[in-house]
Backbone:
């Protein structure tokens, strides 16, 4: 019985091309007490593998967090499979605004301590005492309220390329970092301001809203379904779009265009640009924003040093990488000194 992915990304990409099937990129989450995450994980992998599902899913004692893709022709089968699981019946599936058949190239279902790394001790507060969920039209209305403070609960590389008009965008590297910063900045307004939060699909706000209510905030609200669901409602209901730029996503697409506004700059030359890439030097793999001109000049690398390295032989590059780990640079936690126009 196969319980783990056995194909490389290259092999999977070739199979996707050969199949010629349109795929849908989907995300969903659910906080729910799962008694045995490992058994649940194995069940999902077996059933999803049969449906040709790809993507990255975390399962824990507190629930599930999934970012996946599935052949469009298998969507209803996936929906039926999820509906057969009691706590996932009728769950809202956030379907991507922009589709790419290769958004994911492997099926990974992992058991984790938490479905989002929030650094919180859930035993110290009531995680079910959440904030008020708002639809897109309700969110837009509250944004106009002068007593509202709108906060982006995402990391700096996410909010840098897109955010809501007037939102506070903490310059943080992790979700956990933002929790304390926001509380400190708004400590004098726990009772007289509306704390309005949003994130990509809603999962971070789900936990954060309960945390802030525990910390004494009286008026806590969150965007139901995050930016993804907001955009769907804006289009289907012909509402005013108050989101500027792109929505960062954690797959090979890297972002979805929500509006034509470009709110960020190339990290190498400073011209308006919102295209994220990973440095072509596998030993670096730094995530940064790069315009077409700089991409051509530097051969998709972040620095002269990395550009020189990509011209070395495979064995020489492998030797340079020995003993070094660059995985954290994929969504860079630190600030690279190589990039003149990066914070």
Residues:
């Amino acid at each position: 019985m196969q319980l783990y992915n056995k194909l490389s990304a290259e092999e999977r990409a070739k199979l996707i091309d050969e199949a010629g099937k349109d795929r849908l990129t989907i995300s969903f989450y659910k906080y729910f007490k799962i008694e045995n995450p490992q058994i649940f994980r194995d069940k999902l992998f077996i059933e999803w593998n049969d449906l040709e599902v790809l993507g990255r899913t975390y399962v824990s004692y507190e629930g599930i967090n999934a970012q996946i893709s599935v052949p469009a022709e298998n969507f209803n089968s996936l929906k039926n499979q999820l509906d057969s699981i009691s706590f996932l019946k009728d769950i809202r599936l956030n379907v991507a605004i922009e589709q790419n058949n290769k958004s994911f190239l492997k099926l990974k279902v992992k058991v984790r301590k938490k479905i989002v790394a929030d650094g919180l001790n859930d035993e110290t507060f009531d995680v079910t005492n959440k904030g008020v969920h708002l639809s897109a039209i309700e969110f837009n209305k509250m944004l106009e309220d002068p007593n509202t403070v709108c906060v982006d609960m995402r990391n700096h590389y996410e909010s840098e390329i897109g955010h809501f008009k007037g939102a506070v965008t903490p310059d943080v590297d992790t979700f956990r970092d933002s929790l304390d910063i926001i509380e400190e900045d708004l400590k004098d307004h726990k009772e007289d301001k509306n704390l309005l939060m949003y994130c990509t699909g809603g999962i971070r706000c789900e936990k954060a809203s309960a945390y802030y209510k525990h910390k004494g905030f009286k008026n806590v609200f969150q965007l139901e379904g995050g930016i993804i669901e907001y955009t769907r409602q804006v289009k289907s209901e012909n509402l005013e779009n108050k989101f500027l730029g792109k929505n960062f996503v954690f797959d090979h697409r890297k972002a979805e265009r929500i509006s034509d506004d470009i709110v960020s700059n190339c990290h190498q030359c400073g011209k308006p640009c919102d295209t994220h890439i990973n440095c072509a030097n596998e030993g670096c793999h730094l995530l940064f924003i790069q315009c077409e001109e700089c991409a051509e000049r530097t051969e998709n690398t972040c620095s002269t040093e990395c550009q020189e390295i990509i011209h070395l032989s495979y064995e020489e590059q492998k030797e340079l990488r020995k003993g070094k780990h660059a995985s954290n640079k994929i969504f860079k936690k630190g600030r690279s000194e190589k990039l003149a126009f990066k914070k």
Notes: Residues 37-50 form the longest helix (14 residues). The mean pLDDT is 92.
